[in-house]
UniProtKB/TrEMBL annotation:
Protein name: Pentacotripeptide-repeat region of PRORP domain-containing protein
Record flagged with keyword Lipid metabolism: no
PROSITE patterns: PPR (PS51375)
Record keywords, A-Z: Repeat
Residue ranges of coiled coil: none
Species of the source: Citrus clementina
Length: 485
């Protein structure tokens, strides 16, 4: 069925009808079909306007379909349709969201080509994207350009500049200089200004200065936001002032400022690092009761704290809760739980979690790879004492997935099968050890030779071989004597 027959437009199709249908359609591709079917009505006098183009471009950007969005932008220009900066800014923000700041700059530069003069709002939007993506040199150059073309500083632009300066310890003083000069420029610092500075101080560990600024904020009738409270709570937790952080948490709630997932996660992190995982679990329950969904950081914090205190049962429950919520635990979290099981000698359970990782397609990253190798080797070495067959399975899995087998693991597996009298497996592993460029140590050779010697037929063969060698030696000596004569 063609697009024209999919919709029966009235004889007088209007932009309002097109807008209503596109807005109601959640599937971006179907929304584009509606847009195109309206385009097919150009023959009947309909024309897309700024509103329909803007909505369709916005929907495409939200779905990260940037190329079709820019193609539509070019159509706006070709069809001589009125164009506003908001269309461009929606694409710029989209590129910023997916960490493509240079593309945001490119679209911004297109504005003048399309006859759309950027206002201070556009400049500040692009400046904020550059700062957020840590393109600081470019951001400072862009800010100087803004000043050169006569864009006057305002609270919004100075807030973005202060945020850029707060990202490095060496420029914090410059951030405070601008902050103190703001009133002289006719700009009054707002909650965002204070929050940015407090966050910068906390990241640098300057908690005393952050608390003083927090007090000043209240004297200026500037109400702290949830972001400001969370920055200070996180800073206090990092400096091990967890009790003070808890008091601040209660204060924000009493003032009607609702904590967010980052507030809860920061407090849980402080409590877990202080050995108070039970209190952290209570916070989790409070968080869920307030309909805040824990994120991967929340769960990771709790799981690490519970493992540190040896509360394995609760740690496994947290792992299960993560999976039920649709969050995928990474190799680092699995490694923590597996290590905990190894610490208490439960190697079977540890091996089960290794299997779960493999089945789930979970692979370590560069940072957790060494832990991954160490965990596997520990599990195999532990299983050699309790379940040799399972140890061999994990060992084979390691080799199949190119996970390095260390010399102690080789020795453990070989010794284990030698004691069982399974010479074939032992010999196979010795071959693989040598192929990997390792040399068996004295203990490993001793185990192999003992196993061979213990087999009756092998012992008889060895004794017969020794007798033959002795006879050959005697014959050789007689030959030499005859040659001398």
């Amino acid at each position: 069925m063609g697009v024209k027959t999919m919709f029966k437009w009235s004889t007088k199709i209007t932009s309002a009808q097109v807008l209503q249908l596109i807005r109601a359609e959640k599937d971006v591709n179907k929304a584009l079909v509606i847009f195109d079917s309206a385009t097919a009505e150009y023959a009947n006098g309909f024309r897309h306007d700024n509103s329909t183009f803007s909505l369709m471009i916005s929907k495409l950007v939200s779905a990260n379909q940037f190329r079709p969005a820019e193609d539509l932008l070019d159509r706006v220009n070709k069809e001589k349709c009125d164009i506003t900066e908001d269309i461009f800014l929606s694409i710029c923000r989209g590129y910023g969201r997916v960490h493509r700041p240079l593309d945001a700059m490119r679209v911004f530069d297109k504005m003048k080509e399309f006859g759309c003069e950027p206002t201070p709002k556009s400049y500040i939007t692009v400046l904020a994207i550059l700062v957020e993506e840590n393109q600081l040199k470019l951001a400072f150059r862009f800010y100087r350009h803004m000043r050169e073309i006569g864009i006057q500083p305002c609270v919004a632009s100075l807030n973005v500049l202060i945020k850029a300066l707060c990202k490095n310890s060496g420029t914090m003083d410059a951030a405070f200089k601008i902050f103190r000069e703001m009133p002289n420029r006719g700009c009054t610092p707002d909650s965002y200004t204070y929050g940015t500075l407090i966050n910068g101080l906390c990241r640098l560990g300057k908690i005393y200065e952050a608390k003083e600024l927090f007090k000043e904020m209240e004297t200026k009738a500037c109400s702290p936001t949830v972001v400001t409270y969370t920055s200070l709570i996180n800073g206090l937790c990092q400096s091990k002032s967890v009790e003070e952080a808890m008091r601040l948490f209660e204060e924000m709630r009493s003032k009607g400022v609702e904590p967010n997932v980052f507030t809860y996660s920061s407090l849980m992190d402080g409590l877990c690092k202080g050995g108070c995982s039970s209190q952290a679990m209570e916070l989790l329950q409070m968080m869920i009761s307030k309909r805040h969904r824990p994120n991967i950081v929340t769960y990771s914090t709790l799981l690490n704290g519970l493992c540190k205190e040896g509360k394995l049962q609760e740690a496994v429950e947290i792992l299960d809760r993560m999976k039920l919520q649709g969050l995928k635990p990474d190799a680092g979290l699995y490694g923590k739980i597996i290590s905990c099981f190894c610490d208490i000698g439960k190697y079977q359970e540890a091996a089960n979690f290794l299997d779960e990782m493999v089945l789930g397609g979970i692979t370590p990253n560069r940072l957790t790879w060494s832990l991954h190798i160490r965990t596997h080797n520990t599990v195999v070495q532990g299983l050699c004492k309790t379940d040799p067959n399972r140890a061999f399975q994990v060992y084979l899995s390691m080799r199949n997935r190119s996970i390095s087998v260390d010399s102690l693991t080789y020795s453990s597996v070989i010794t284990c099968f030698c004691k069982k009298g399974d010479i074939h497996k032992s010999a196979r592993i010795v071959d693989e050890l040598v192929l990997d460029g390792c040399l068996p140590d004295e203990g490993t050779w001793s185990a192999v030779m003992t196993a061979l010697w213990d087999r009756r037929k092998m012992r008889q063969a060895a004794e017969l071989l020794l007798l033959q060698l002795m006879n050959k030696c005697v014959e050789a000596e007689v030959d030499i004597q005859n040659q001398d004569v």
